[in-house]
């Protein structure tokens, strides 16, 4: 039994009994025209922005939606084949895939089809917040409200869950990638400096945060880029509080999404969440102080799940054993 988290920045695969066996960037490189797969994952990631004319390396699901459906399918197949090497290949596993929230019905069918073509006996789909909640150890089948906020690369998904299904949810196109872009815009405006998205991500991970650092020495980082005026390389210093300021408008959008889901949820479920707290999953949940920031705004306790970036894939794999409890998995299975 295999769980696949088809994330927009990272694809993860969990095999029952083995744990997470694959974590690779959601990137594919193909030959132009023939669309032959040249590389996927890490190898394709290194080619981004460095390919000669006849090859193209892309992120087929950037920003939380499937931008290129054929390439997404090819990438998914290549990753699953990678973990199904050796004798495993003949076992015809059951595969559950966690799909991005912006995915359409047609795309869902394409994902199921791709998984079948690889030789899966059964292909099931699960929504990200439900998988995240299971992976975070929440008892989702109970008639009790749980609130999960998954901050990924492309989207932030906020969901109120009860009895194995989503009661109210919202998906925002504001997550890790937008934070990186916010930071690039900030450095450009303040220092007239152009920085790359990988540099921006590194700054965010190293000194970034959602709340200003209280007391002590302010962490800083030297950032290299290209001066906008004379076009030459330049280095400037960015502080932790600079990052907080740069991310603030995006963080406010996430907070507004959380508030909206709370407002639209039945009062009994909200009361459960006030008691049990909100759980954060996804790579973006690791942004320093994000829990404290959301707690201040909602007045509800907020906790980051353990290994937040793996919650979705672990939950997807675990969900295979509890498909009978999950409303979406059941529906999906019946429908396709
Ligand atoms: N320590 C950290 N601080 C802040 N952000 C982080 C940290 N570690 C990872 N991230 C961010 O987490 C994001 C990736 O999260 P994740 O792997 O959950 O996304 P995904 O599942 O591929 O995307 P999605 O769920 O939107 O489809 C990236 O934007 C990355 O920069
Ligand atoms: Mg994700």
Structure explained in plain terms:
The radius of gyration is 21 Å and the shape is flat. The protein folds into 3 domains: 2-130 and 313-335, Nucleotidyltransferase, domain 5 (2-Layer Sandwich); 140-174 and 250-308, Nucleotidyltransferase, domain 5, CATH 3.30.420; 176-246, Actin, Chain A, domain 4 (Alpha-Beta Complex). It is α/β, with parallel strands linked by helices. Mean pLDDT is 91; it is low at 330-336. It is 39% helix and 26% strand. The chain has helices at 42-47, 69-83, 105-117, 128-135, 176-191, 197-207, 240-264, 267-276, 290-298, 311-319, 327-335, and strands spanning 2-6, 10-15, 19-25, 28-31, 37-40, 55-58, 94-99, 122-127, 146-151, 156-162, 165-172, 193-194, 220-227, 233-239, 278-281, 302-304. The protein has 11 helices and 16 strands. It has a 5-stranded mixed sheet with strand order 3-2-1-7-8, sandwiched between helices. β15, α9 (290-298) and β16 form a beta-alpha-beta unit.
What secondary-structure arrangement, pairings included, does this model have?
Elements lengths: L1 E5 L3 E6 L3 E7 L2 E4 L5 E4 L1 H6 L7 E4 L10 H15 L10 E6 L5 H13 L4 E6 H8 L10 E6 L4 E7 L2 E8 L3 H16 L1 E2 L2 H11 L12 E8 L5 E7 H25 L2 H10 L1 E4 L8 H9 L3 E3 L6 H9 L7 H9 L1
Parallel strand pairs: 1-7, 7-8, 9-15, 15-16
Antiparallel strand pairs: 1-2, 2-3, 4-5, 4-6, 9-10, 10-11, 12-13, 13-14
The protein binds adenosine-5'-triphosphate and magnesium ion.
What's the order of the H and E elements?
Answer: EEEEEHEHEHEHEEEHEHEEHHEHEHH
CATH superfamily of the largest domain: ATPase, nucleotide binding domain
| CATH level-1 class of the largest domain | Alpha Beta
- Major sheet: arrangement of strands: 3-2-1-7-8
Helix content: 25-40%
Residue-averaged pLDDT: 91
Summed up, the helix count is 11
Strand content: 25-35%
